[in-house]
Amino acid sequence: MKTLIFRTIAPTLTAIMVVFSIFVLLRGHNEPGGGFIGGLIAASAIAIYGIAVGVSEVRKALLVDPISMAGFGVFIAALSGLLSLGQSVPYLTGLWGYISIGATKITISTPMVFDIGVYFAVVGTISAVALALEEGEADK
Amino acid sequence: MTEMLMAPFIGMFFASAVYLILSKSVIRMLLGITILGNGVNLLIFTMGRVTREIPPIVPAGLKQPVGDIANPLPQALILTAIVIGFALFTFLLVLGYRAYQELDADNTDNMRLAEPANPPQPPLNY
Amino acid sequence: MESSYETALELDLPRAMLERATSAGEWNLILPVVIALMAGALLAMIRHSRGSQVGFSVLAVLAIIAVELDLFFQVLELGPVAMTMGNWLPPFGISFVADTMSVSFALAASLVTLVVLIYFQAEIVPREVRHGFYPLVLLLLAGVTGAFLTGDLFNLYVWFEVMLIASFGLLIIGGRKMQLDAAIKYGFLNFLATTFFLVGLGYMYGLIGTLNMADIALVAGQADPAPMTAVAALFLLAFGMKAAAFPVNAWLPASYHTPDAAVSALFGGLLTKVGVYALLRIMVALMPASRELFDPLLTGIAVLTLILAPMGAIAQTNLRRAIGFLVIGGIGAVFAGISVPNVLGIAGAVFYAFHSMLTMSAFYLVAGLVERVTQATDTRHMGGVYAANSLISILFIVLVFAAAGLPPFLGFWPKMLIVEATISQQDWILMSAVLINSLLTSIAGSRLWAHIFWRPGRDGANSEVPNDHLRELNSTEKRMALSAVCVLVGFIVILGLLPNLLFNAANFSAMDLLNPQSYITSTGIETGTSLTGETQ
Fold this sequence. Notes:
The structure holds three protein chains of three kinds. Chain A is mainly alpha-helical. Chain A is built from five helices and two strands. Chain A has a two-stranded antiparallel ribbon. The mean pLDDT of chain B is 84. Chains in contact: A-B, A-C, B-C.
């Protein structure tokens, strides 16, 4: 699949998809979207990049190993639940905080941290699988 | 009433899934597994009762939804089931692909490495 | 604009949200799972550094064991403990409930994991560490512990799948062709089993509108019995497959012997027992009416499994495959206990499952040692290693006796309870099946023992089947593996000699299962949610 057109368009497409995936992730709290769907979009971006430029290039570009990324996601998702330990409420209780920057009030909450964890877990796992499949293709 | 219409659909999903899973080819079994997963999701959805009520979303400014709302729980269950089913499907897909490459077999009849086709007799004496 | 959480606070609170503070004791419920998950995730991040992973994973499992021990004594003293996630009240939130049975199973699971981790040090393969052996083991432990401790049926399904994914990974971790073959069979059949479970869940939700176990226990009796029977049949099929009971056991002997011995031991100790646990919890505690209806079927499964499984073991020449059949035989004994619905039978089933977790993983570990010593996986190519390895031979024969249920080892007591229960029901067929199982298991086991240790020299010397993955252990590694196995076997012997604590625990578990009132009260549900009415 290393055609000229695809190779030219793929980096742009990947960048747009990754940005869009972060948008979907952050939007997901009260509106359609969320960590899983955002993670899937990001993972497909990585898969597209892999098809265009080859798996080893993608691994270099990712900086971290996909499985480590998935581990990081699971870790912070589990951690977000543990924060409620100090508040004498059960595991995974949502805790909320607000930060005011100028006129906008930004909500920080443990469900969002959880969702970010889900995002990383999904990106890591799915791109690991996709890269493994693409690698098998290249070997032949 | 809609449940009655859903039932035969779910039945068809299950029937085609069973047909595909009974095949000897791994790729067909994979497709069967996917269809089965979708059939089950549809079943849970139907079991949560199909109604024409509005989505379970609290309108802005209100404290609780107005009037009857659709049951959100089956949707949550299905979402979880889809995610898990997807994860397992990708795993089985990679596994099937690896098996196809390494064992050179898409046919389960040829997969006799773990269980040899003609098992040796146990020794009869000490 | 206020967030939705704050708006919710002004609504009908006492019915939906927990208003009292959560005590530290309740946190013990969730901590084992959280520690396992977080440790597994951390290990996945550092899986390229070999040295730190061992110590870290052992520390994590030790922490889990400490928490579970605390929980165990808390439960023995005060009865079941519960915590519902996210500050909701059940049935709205997902409950975690620990009663005696679930905590003792969880404890046995983490103990087995600890021993396996230490054993793995002896036959460590760097490539497998890089491919994530440690994270997968902890993920498996998280799944198993979660399945034991959860009080919600759908959550149980999720933990089943966590466990399944981790076990897939462990099953193929060596990358041998045989493992790929086994993983395909294991994968498809177990995925089917969990899908049947999911179908049952869907029907159950449609029938009674709740999936919280305590809630189900309250309302299951009022539901229409005919569809509930269908649900129970689906559950029986799903958990029977998971537990590898007779007609649906094919995946177990096809897969358990292919990975490393350490992984086999984990599987033999943990996976089937989760199916058994789910059967005990759902058929005995939640749907007693359906269990009664299925009584003849359960007895039939028990009898067939009890007799056919050890016969399979006798017909095997592959050592670990033969042990796989012995694992299935143990499942038959548990089914025999379940099919006798009095305290004796259920206590026997619980006790047997606990014993089987320890004994079967020890058995696989010893088998792994035997394979290393003889450089063969097939008993036809073994023999004459008695003099050089007398300790291994002693461990092996102890485990054979424990598995067969001969006194004074651990397996004797649960079998005694089950036999007593069958006598009290005058179920002579079942009773003789349990006893014949003991006989056949000891024949199969001592046959293996005689072939491996007693028989002079190797017949036909070298194996015609190359066992390329078997690296001979040097003496330090061997000592390490032996000490790990010795600890586990020591446990089995000591618990066999001093079974009082376990007897009490099994009795408590059985009483809790047969009369789930204290289980229900602990979650805080007083009256069950009303059955879902048809929306007109």
